[in-house]
Design brief:
This protein is α/β, with parallel strands linked by helices. About 40% of the residues lie in helices and about 25% in strands. It has helices at about 25-40, 60-70, 85-95, 110-120, 145-165, 185-195, 215-220, 235-245; strands at about 1-5, 10-15, 20, 45-50, 55, 75-85, 105, 125-130, 135-140, 170-175, 205, 225-230.
Amino acid sequence: MLQSIEYLPEGVWGLRAVGEVSKRDYEQVVRPALDAARREGRRLQFIYHLGPEFEGFTPGGAWEDARVGLQYIRLFERCAVVTDVDWIRTMTRAVAPMMLCPVKVFRNDEWNEAVTWVSTPRARSVDYRILADRAVLLIEPNGVLRAEDFDAISAAVDVWIESTDRPLRGVVVHARAFPGWENLGSFLRHVRFIRDHHRRVQRVALATDAALAGVATNLADHFTQATIKRYDYEDSDCAIAWASGGPGEMTSAGDQPHVHAPQ
């Protein structure tokens, strides 16, 4: 069976495998928790303990474990697997590089280290949230952009769309200055994020005091279906109103928006 683990740090969800794990355990324990997280737009820091009391999976349980993992993979922000079972350790290490989140394996006597690791993910360099009432994604960079930031944003957007069946109306980027990318991989992940989501977005507002010539041009090249408009940094409320489908406002006399019209 699968049991919820109590007394974990806030934001961490844990399961302990006891005896034999079956398909029914996933249907009664795992899926309801993951469906709730999806509806609420939450991502999970997950710890899975297969300790001395674990006896194995039934055939249906092993299949359901793999199926659930693939179906809900975008919900996970960080995963720790704690076990001394060699085949599980080997398999987890083999699939970890293909996961969309960091995955790390610990031994049973490393439980405290596992809890610490899973509960303290690397600090974000981008704050983001979906303004549900307006169907707008607000992105606020506070440091150089990293690949995992775009993975997290992409997962949050996909989860929200799946759970609400509503497309995003717009995206607002709110930053005093453009921070740049950590490395080439981060830039490529940014391009991939735009490629995967640009057809779902009609308006992109840039609320920033940065020099926008290069940034706006790059965004316009990739958001081929979107109209892009500039606002001053302090006028983020107007930017959000416009991105959500409202008329918005000009930020200052004579300030003309940068607009990219689809070809």
